[in-house]
């Protein structure tokens, strides 16, 4: 099992939770990004910097992940690809993305894009909260407990 992180837009508190968990349960964790990402010195935690470009980091995660791995991402198309490969996906907000929820979120994303294209102001994402961090940490702990059995 391996944890893959779509690190370009991953909040710092999520990375901190992941770093502690990787050390605690001895699971490898790799952050993939288009820019340098600081990670603690550890044989279990590493960062891969890919070249700039549309979906380059996402494609690297899809290429490397395997069934049973966990992918942390807010990117719904990336989640759809890794779930199709047999990996699991969770958002930094602690929401699981499976075949059904990915389809729903893709539909919602497409609808919102149509609204924005029509000139409607839809607002941006909410700021990352302590409640989001706790929900993510709980989701990660449940996954780790399940896969370690």
Automatic annotation (TrEMBL):
Family recorded in the similarity comment: Belongs to the UPF0178 family.
CDD domains registered for this protein in UniProt: PIN_YqxD-like
Record-given protein name: UPF0178 protein T9A_02346
One Pfam family this sequence matches: DUF188
InterPro entries (UniProt xref): UPF0178
